[in-house]
Amino acid sequence: xxxxxxxxxxxxxxxxxxxxxxxxxxxxxxxxxxxxxxxxxxxxxxxxxxxxxxxxxxxxxxxxxxxxxxxxxxxxxxxxxx
Length: 82
What we know:
The chain has one domain (2-80). Helix content is 18%, strand content 32%. The chain is built from 2 helices and 6 strands, in the order E-E-H-E-E-E-E-H. A 4-stranded mixed beta sheet has the order 1-2-3-4, with helices on one face. Strands 5-6 form a two-stranded antiparallel sheet. The radius of gyration is 13 Å and the shape is flat.
């Protein structure tokens, strides 16, 4: 989910996981769009996570909480929408 604030030209990108193969795309978004990132801290698969140290800004990691079987919640994600 990518949303643009009505108060500024900042973007917020919130995803359930940040796979390593999309790192260059996210770095470009940070540079060109002044984007803040919020990623889930894990996934069900074995995909390698992005190295957050390559970002200029701090990347916020949301806690992945399993509710029931493969139904999960990222704590704090709903609040970011508002």
